[in-house]
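Technical annex, item 7. During the second reporting period the consortium partners agreed on a shared format for inverse folding records so that results from different sites could be compared directly. Each record opens with the tokenized structure and is followed by the designed sequence. A conforming record, contributed by the partner at site C, is shown below for reference.
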């Protein structure tokens, strides 16, 4: 069953955990696409100073202001390692990109009122639901 995700795209601030400086990786091209569509992209990568022309943060807790969506570009087995930070910033949505799933993280996030999407690409869903 396909859940309606169109409302997610009305949210505008996306923290991208695992954002990449490598333009050939989805962790760069997907958030870059969303930035071009008008979303505020906040890269989270302790190994970079800037990505997408935006200041890069070492972790979610360092980001000033509120975060609507935490978008994960980390391996499935690492997602639970980020849950304390995710819960601390209390986003509306936790989005695990294509190929990324964690039932444990999903249950924990949902128990705290966070809507969870797993194994879906935000760029693909945006193109389907909002248009290019």
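Designed sequence (site C submission):
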């Amino acid at each position: 069953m396909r859940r309606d995700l169109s409302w997610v795209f009305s949210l505008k601030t996306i923290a991208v955990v695992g954002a990449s400086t490598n333009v050939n990786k989805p962790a760069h091209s997907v958030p870059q696409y969303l930035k071009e569509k008008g979303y505020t992209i906040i890269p989270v990568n302790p190994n970079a100073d800037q990505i997408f022309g935006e200041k890069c943060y070492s972790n979610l807790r360092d980001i000033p202001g509120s975060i609507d969506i935490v978008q994960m570009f980390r391996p499935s087995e690492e997602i639970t390692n980020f849950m304390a930070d995710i819960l601390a910033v209390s986003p509306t949505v936790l989005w695990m990109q294509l190929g990324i799933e964690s039932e444990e993280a999903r249950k924990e996030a949902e128990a705290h009122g966070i809507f969870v999407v797993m194994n879906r690409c935000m760029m693909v869903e945006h193109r389907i639901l909002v248009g290019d």
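Strands lie at 13-17, 40-44, 50-51, 54-55, 69-72, 93-96, 115-117. The radius of gyration is 13 Å. All partners now use this format for quarterly exchanges.
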